[in-house]
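Quick illustration, no need to memorize.
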Amino acid sequence: MDCTRTSLLAVAASIVGFFNSTAIAQEIADTIYTGGPILTINDAQPTAEAVAVKDGIIMAVGDLDNMLTLQNDATQVYDLDGRAMVPGFVDSHGHVVFGGLQALSANLLAPPDGKITDIASLQDNLKAWAEENSAAVEQTGVIIGFGYDNAQLAELRHPTREDLDAVSTDVPIIIVHQSGHLGVANSKVLEIVGYDASTEDPPGGVIQRGPDGNPNGVLEEYAFFAALGPVLNELGAEGIAAFSAAGSELWASFGYTTAQDGRSSAGAVETLKAVDTEGRIAVDVVAYPDVLEAQDYIREHVSKDYDSHIRVGGCKLTIDGSPQGFTALRDRPYYDPVGDYPPGYAGYSAVTMEQVHNAVNWCFENGIQILVHANGEGASDMFIAAIETAQQKYGDPGNRPVLIHGQFLREDQVDDLKRLGIFPSLFPMHTFYWGDWHRDHTVGPVNADNISPTGWLMKRDMMFGSHHDAPVAFPDSMRILDATVTRRTRSGDILGPEHRVDVITGLKALTIWPAWQHFEEDRKGSIEVGKIADFVVLSEDPTAIDPETLDTIKIIATIKDDEVIYERDENVQKGELNRSNFAFSPTFGDQFLHAMHDGLTVEN
């Protein structure tokens, strides 16, 4: 064959290849989404008329006329019917497994998420739940309630053992504070765990006591976690699986296509994988096992790639506790704490400075991402110091360390976050749920204006995530958006108007910025060609309504990989699940207890 013929054949092959590649680029779409405002969260193309998807990946974004060229009879057209579409929400911080407990236990939340306003209503709710779930109570031998908040009770105090004894002295009752850092046990539970006047407080925990020195039922931090063991020992082997499936369903109902299991455990991750294999996990889940409990497991399993819907993203460290529960470590005394606290009380840390340094150094040495719970200024100081030391020793491994909560950050600490490259995952919903409490009791009226200081971040051109920390609160994306934009408290006060942000910024903190936090900005967080077809359909365009009504927007549908995984049912209330889907078998307790021991706890 002569050179001329060879060259001609090469040119011909190139031309054929060109047209083949063009044909591939013009493949027919599986689905075209159109018929309503589409907010892409892509600054280069903020809005679109339509989105075309092929094989679960976005293939085109733009004008409807262009999208229609990708349509044939097999193409499904998803009509938004005037409703808005945004990228699927990415969970900046939450506990999807333990969120299942919230979904499957007695709801003790205050309005608007529940009906508990005083201790009498709490007692009535527990009694009603026990009656409605009598078979489960008989099988498991325990009554569990989740979400009470002493700050929202008319009595402004925690329930006591006597209050729970009025519900039952025969059945163990344990209720979990909304922060997840506290709880209350009835006398039966205290008897089972052996807490009495002679019992010393465990390290990192407090057994609150009455005038006679006997436990009054209120247990803090590790004193509370230790009491859960014997109580939950009879809940059955399917419990973690049920929690995992319920959590996944709950997150999807609020528009999340990526969930987090922050402060997970090796056992919980393996259970998530098993439940996912059964097809019961609809969303992606990024797990962060406790660095103090599961280093070997983390090192072996950490990955930026999913195994189906599950991956280990790094590790978690918890330094302090709950600000509204007065267990967060401050750098100064609490303003006016409600309870029996000594003068100058400033909270306490759950770990030592040595543990913080060791954990952070281990993550930097191994190039592993670390998420650190630090609520009070003192806890944030500990984290910042550890990051600075680790960077001096190991440099920057590109592991994107994350500060979780930072509720009472000082402005100089925000400067430190930017200087050290620490990503802040903040909790602006605190302005709604506990803003009045912080103003009146935790930090006082001056410092309350600066809780979750998003304005300071914006002045420094910093990204941030807005989270829910469910089950501390429902994973309510629109409540988060509302709080981040308006900062309005339950009483109607506005805390720190200088920290309010616009709606698009609020949406970025729910989508593209937490996607960056999780090293997934190249595939999630915005509606762009080449990214995964994860979407949320909203009842209204959040940029086109009064910001004071953002919390009234409804999640109409949640779409994961171009598949509808949730559709709104007008007959189902917020956070309510079909509980008949979740069964408990006799050996659940051991698995749940192991997970709790390994760190399956929430923090706020």
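The chain has a mean pLDDT of 88.
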